[in-house]
## 1
Amino acid sequence: MEKIVGDAHMDREPSKQELQRQMEQTRASLAETLGEIKETISQEVSTVKNTVSGVLDYREEFQKEPLVWSLGALSAGFALGYTLGYAHKNAKGGKQAPVIAFADSMVNELSTVGKGLVMPALNAKIKELFGLEFSDLLEQIGGSAKKRASKKRTKRSTSKRTKLHVTRKKKKTT
């Protein structure tokens, strides 16, 4: 009999007062939920702010311990450079391993940044301190290294030719 009474209760439409009461309950529930969400979000935002400000305060930490930070950066750079150099050295047959591809792209990116940002600032500082154009000096060093490399190649190829020529003469005489 309870089912019949329950079904009869379901068949009738709720009164205006019941609907208003349900709407008030829903509004109160929504307001409570929104309040909890706002509180949770504000807590998370403050936590993230504290974390980020701690991470971004590296300048202050660097000023406190410049030697430690410099040695750490130097060590990390050396380890990365050594690892990438070793990967290049052991590349066999022109295989493009992921580490080698990463190293090449990193070198290209660092070269671009260095030429665009670091070199102009460094050149200005060196010129201010020593009155020397650093970029011109680097170009001269690079030019002389290229000349030496091309001379070595011609000497090697000439010496190989000479050896071949001498070897051929010996074969003809015997």
Note: The chain has six helices and no strands.
## 2
Amino acid sequence: MSNTPETTVVVAKKPAMAHKSIVNESREIERAVTLIDLGARLQVLESETTLSYERLLRLYKEVAGRSPSKGQLPFSTDWFLTWQENIHSSLFLNIYEYLSKSSAGDDIDMLIKAYRLYSEQMVATEVEPLLSFTRAWRLVKFVDAHMLTMTTCSQCHGHYVTEPYENSRYFVCGLCNPPARAGKGKNAGGLRLH
């Protein structure tokens, strides 16, 4: 037997630290780089990633080689309803809705895939892409907020971007009933009607 008193050593536990996953951060950076490559504005990156503004700003400058555009994002639904813009918006939104229904993934991942497919169609048909990634993102937000919707054309039965109160029974799309000067411009890469 020993004459020394027993000492109890108490080991204090370290407080639980916020767990930061390097893998998740890497995915966020990869997503941000993809969005920058597609032409997304900084506000879109802020909305669709968890990276800080300062980090996104540095990343944007590194990837794009320039500072991001300043100013507010477009907030009018009118742009999506004019003739050529409506055709481009409708093509994109049909692709996006098909992908959203047929495959799993985050909304932003579906948006990226849909925008890439839209861009491929523009290259294949030699038509100038009118829909930027930021406008495509805004279009999806407008549809989610019920500010825009898809309406079926009563003649060709295609689905087109319209205002929510459009009467589908009498709706005729811009391809079935184009405006008088539609397709007659000399812009290279514009839609042409024969």
Note: Strands lie at 149-152, 159-162.
## 3
Amino acid sequence: MWIVKLGGSLAHDERLARWLHMLAELGGGRVLVVPGGAAFADAVRAAQARWRFDDLTAHNMAVLAMAQTAHLLHALEPRLVLVSEEQDIRRAQHAGRAALWMPLTLLRDAPDVLTSWDVTSDSIALWLARRLNAERLVVVKACAVVPPHTFEKLSAIGLVDRRFAQWANDAAFPIEVVSCDDLARVQDALLGGASLTDPGASAPGASSGSGQRKAAGARPRRKSIE
């Protein structure tokens, strides 16, 4: 199973429809799409800044923001099967369908490792990939991506959240951070004809000389839950 995280910033990009079409066409039985929170999550941040409520409440509101984005993506590409529970994900996979995750199981009654702004939808996608023993995680950003960078560097420039590097560094599967301009490369990789790693660049997830894992880099573009 591939986990493909579509950043919330893509909700303002006409290329989103092409990504959804490609994943529905080629991802049957293999791809699970994880949505970002988009402007709905930005509204959560603004409300918390105004009313000073706790991070647990903000987390639950942000999960609902991701669910709203999932409904948006499903409206754009109804062939993606809306799923929430793990058994629904597996059922869609066995039926040969590409799936779209509604993260309602992440609603919490008490704080835990997920209920912090250190964890946004990028790390939630990584958390899910680890839980499902995924083959690969692809995080799609609206900005240009220039490899290679460590996950720590991507976190420092605000492209991924503060928890992402910690959870990525010991992941048992490849992790790529790509631009939405890289649709053809991801398509070819899904078809089995190409690697997502550019020739001559260190593979995302490979060890560098410093012991840090490398990922695709990007020009900074700060968002909230993407």
Note: The CA atoms of residues 1 and 135 lie 5 Å apart.
## 4
Amino acid sequence: MFLSEILYPVHPEKFRKEILGKKLYWWKAPSGASERYSNLYSWEHFESYMNNWENANHVQMAEADDEKQNGEDGKWDKGRHGKLSKADVYNLWRHGHSIVLPFCEYQSKHLWSVVNTFEKQMPFGKGCANMYCSSRQNSHTFDPHRDSTENFLFHIDGQVKWKFYKQGKSGKPKQFEDIILGRGDLLYIPIGLIHKTQPIGPRLTASVHFQSKPKKVNRDKMYDWYRWFDHQREIKI
């Protein structure tokens, strides 16, 4: 995979010089290409991972309790808190609490390829792919916040309204733009830009994000199961 394929029609060099770290940028899906990210992840991936509850350690949930007892950001994390059962999480999910699955590049060879391509061809540090999953319209997400990473949002299914804010003179963030991200759209959010999401219905969004400090990452040294299976198929033909 090449970076030019991911960023098309914006040339990677133009992206580095004119967009990276400077402004929000939105790639709308070309006509007839709304399914172009459907191979990155799917509801079937999500269902399979969540049903394997005992081994599904990387599960987070937005606003799992109203008093935000599990952290200042209101994020419940199975790996850290672990107080909710599979049934508890399912009921919260049905009632509109969004689920976040970190490290999804290890569940999908296509996401792995996207993360790997960015790491090798952009001045970034190590990357990660989080999957944002919402069950219905107006599902609970996070309050307006800013991230310390470079973010690329690959929108796989559904629609989400994104609201963006600037720091007002009074210190209170003031909304300056909103967009509706649709199936097949890609969105770049630079470090520090305040934002909030509002699902318009069931949605799947892959957040592929990177540390800003350049750092050489060699994913070829990791156990690449997909490449091994491809090799086995080749030698048997």
Note: The chain has one domain: 3-236.
